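Re-run with default settings, no changes from the original entry. Doing this only to confirm the output is reproducible before filing.
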Amino acid sequence: MTTKKNIRIWEPLLVGLAAAIGLIAGYNMNFDNAGHKLLDIPEIKENYSGKADGRIEEILRFIESNYVDSLDQKIISIDAVRHILRQLDPHSDYIGEDELTDHNEKMEGAYRGIGIETLKLKDTFYVTKVIEQGPAYKAGLKLGDAIISVDNQLVSGNQKSFSSVRDLLKAEDKNKLELSVIPFGEKSKETRAVEISSINLSSAELSYMPDESTVYVKLERFSDNTYEQFIESLDYYMKDNDNLNLILDLRNNPGGYLPEAIKILSQLFKEKDKLLTYTEGMNRKKAEYRTTGKNFYTINKLAILINEYSASGSEILAGAVQDWDRGVVIGRESFGKGLVQEIFPLRNGGALRLTVAKYYTPSGRLIQKSYRSINKDFEADSVDYQTRL
């Protein structure tokens, strides 16, 4: 009886483990280096090593045929996958379907919606950001507004999920919505007619000249259009003078697509074929990233601003500048993320974010700090708890 009881306790986890192994084993793991968008990956069975001895599949068949109660295999599978990934490193993770949509939008730099970000407190969605000149901005929505209903569908005072509210505010079959909101500091509801349109996310929207010889540019992340926006910022200020100093603010920049960071970094060096960073992993060959020598502008003095939330691509950029003594790095000790993740879409929805290699600075320094010293409040590259709508 004790043996049967123990087996029954472990059965849900075994089901999840079997599902997780099945999901992971069937997908092609032969990507190039970091920085890929989410792409469909064909199943390539030859990549599976065949190290498993089949006992998980055998147990799963016994459970399916004999277990006394029904099981929600989707929930068990996701829990099991996340449990497996927690044994690896803080940055490998399972991304749910809703999180995957948000991740894609953030990295692609554009999405369909009304131009706000929200935060759910208890049972109410509050506006935490309004994109300037976006539909919500033009309709009069402001920070702190509480969203009560969307087209007469109540979203406050109940257990509406982020995904359901997202669907309402990004309705594919509509061009306009009617929102009932309670403005911040008020008690009575007001109605806002808001259009739905394509919203562009700027990752380099803040730039100015603190003095006549210096340009300041802040990079929020390294997304699909960051390099283009960076060049546009330089072009605006350097069109009459292509010989200026640059302050590049990477504070709170969590990283993103490696190619975008490399292209920006290449603009900071005049020399061609100068090593900027390299990546290497057990199942990834060493890949070096070097300057092109094709500079659009002459940048004289260079200062990089970082803090404890500057991670990944931000640290690669700052590390190369530091190693080659190209400029000064100012601020606090950076986050310490030197692991390369690739994202593998899963057939049943969601995706696997898996660490496949490590970043190194030109001098060979490993950026990654000990997992034990990573604050659990921000240890993983999880999607923001705020939802973009």
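The chain has a mean pLDDT of 77. Residues 8 and 101 are 36 Å apart (CA to CA).
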